[in-house]
Give the backbone structure.
Amino acid sequence: MFWFMPFCYFDATSDLLVYDYSFILFYNLIFTSLPVIILGSFDQDINSKAAPAFPRLYVRGIRGLEHTRTKFWFYMLDGLYQSAVVFFIPYLVWQLGLAVASNGKDIDSLADFGTTVAVAAIFAANTYVGMNTHYWTPITWVVVIGSSLVMVLWIVIYSFLPVNTFFSNTDETR
C-alpha cells in the first residue's frame, strides 16, 4: 500500500485499496505469521550439545555485535527494495497491457492487480524466511511451503464466493 498511495493522491480515506480486505486481514494472521514463528522456535546455528560446551559463542550477542544500527538500516533498505520490486513489476506489466487472461482478454481490474501484488508479497515474505532458515526440520518445510499453499487455496475459495460490498460505499453487486 505504501507504493500505491502516490497513485491515489495520498488519500488514505478513500475506498480505493490495492488489496482485497481479506489479504489485509490474513497477511499477518495466517499467510506469513507461522513461518516466522517456526523460524524463531526451531532454527539453530549449532546443535544443543555444542552450545553449552562453547560459551564464547554468546559473546557477540551479549556485546551487541550481531544486531547493529548498520544492520538495522540495511534490513530497512532491503525491505524497501523488496516492496518496490513486488509492486512495480506487476504495475509495469499492467501499464504495458501485458496482463492477459486465459481467454485472451486484457486484465485491467484493480482487484486482479491487487491480488497479483499480494501474492508476490506473500511469496517474497515466505521465501525470505526460508532463505534465512539454517536448520530445516519437517515442521519448517510444512509451515514455510504450507503457508504459501494456504494463500493459493484461499484465493481459489474466495474467488467462488459472492461479492461482498460491506467494505465499499456502493450498493451495487456484481
Residues 170-174 have pLDDT under 50 and may be disordered. The first helix runs from residue 21 to 31. The radius of gyration is 20 Å.
